[in-house]
Specification:
alpha/beta, Alkaline Phosphatase, subunit A, 8-stranded mixed beta sheet, 12 helices
């Protein structure tokens, strides 16, 4: 299996599916897209790690980001108060020339996430930026939770609240670390559990339960329930990707920043520097 070699590979447009594991993509992609599929190894098991290890120089890219970790705010990852804790002194705007914060402009309150059509709309509304840049990336949030068919996303809503609060603090010059942003996460079950149980399997599953229907959990269990919704999310994203790919003039690649775990080796979802196959093996599809 080759390394991903994201920037070293030849492409004009790269469509990144967040948290897309290779095996599920392999099972369904040919219902939507034609092309040559490879399995490649990512450089990270989460978006912050992937971004930190991928974008190390100065890159002339129009980056349409549905993921708030890759943003134009100018805040290093290790200073973010909303999301996964990490030590990466990396700022997206220091390395990527033109970032479009679709996670902000294309946010859907009802879904609790950025739907695929918001990425396509942002692209079509900014063709001048695409023309100026050497290459273009569209970073979709799916198949990452929340699951669109449920329409009750919780985790990204907490991040969105944190982003707004951090921006307000920056504008007001308020650097109080004792509350503020951290308190905006207080109604999220996951941080409460993880603070006591660290990264135990139970804590990780509890974070995933926020996105699942309790009746389905009782009936089918966590893995079966989550995988079904995850595949639905991927299919929804691929419909939009396939439609947009027809409009793109140049070499188009579909890949992922990292994968997703559903109990393998006691891991659920995705976490920084957790280098197991479900998180590290990603698709690399050159679209015909």
């Amino acid at each position: 299996m080759d390394d991903q070699r994201f920037l070293e590979s030849e492409w004009d447009y790269c469509l990144v599916l967040d948290a897309c594991r290779y095996d599920v993509f392999e099972d369904v992609y040919d219902e939507y897209l034609d092309g040559n599929l490879e399995k490649r190894r990512s450089v990270g098991s989460s978006t912050p790690e992937w971004a930190y290890r991928t974008f190390t120089g100065d890159h002339d890219i129009a980056y349409f980001s549905g993921n708030p970790f890759i943003n134009d705010l100018g805040i290093p990852l290790n200073e973010l108060k909303w999301g996964a804790s990490c030590d990466y002194e990396w700022t997206a705007s220091d390395h990527i020339s033109d970032i479009h914060d679709v996670w902000k402009t294309g946010w859907d309150d009802d879904l609790g996430t950025v739907p695929p059509e918001s990425l396509a709309e942002a692209y079509r509304n900014n063709l001048d930026a695409v023309e100026r840049a050497d290459r273009t990336v569209l970073h979709y949030m799916q198949p990452h939770a929340p699951y669109l068919s449920r329409g009750k996303g919780q985790k990204l809503k907490q991040i969105q609240k944190g982003i707004k609060r951090q921006e307000e603090e920056a504008e007001n010059g308020d650097n109080d670390d004792g509350g503020g942003l951290l308190s905006s996460l207080s109604d999220s079950v996951r941080p409460k559990i993880e603070s006591r149980l660290d990264d135990s399997e139970f804590a990780q599953k509890a974070g995933l339960w926020l996105e699942l229907d309790p009746k389905d959990l009782v009936k089918d269990g966590t893995r079966v329930t989550a995988l079904k919704l995850y595949e639905e999310n991927l299919r929804i994203a691929l419909e939009s990707v396939a439609e947009l790919a027809d409009e793109l003039d140049g070499t188009v690649v579909v890949t992922a920043d990292h994968g997703e775990a559903f109990g393998e080796e006691g891991v659920w979802e995705h976490h920084i520097e957790t280098h197991i196959p479900p998180l590290m093996e990603v698709p690399w599809l050159e679209v015909e």
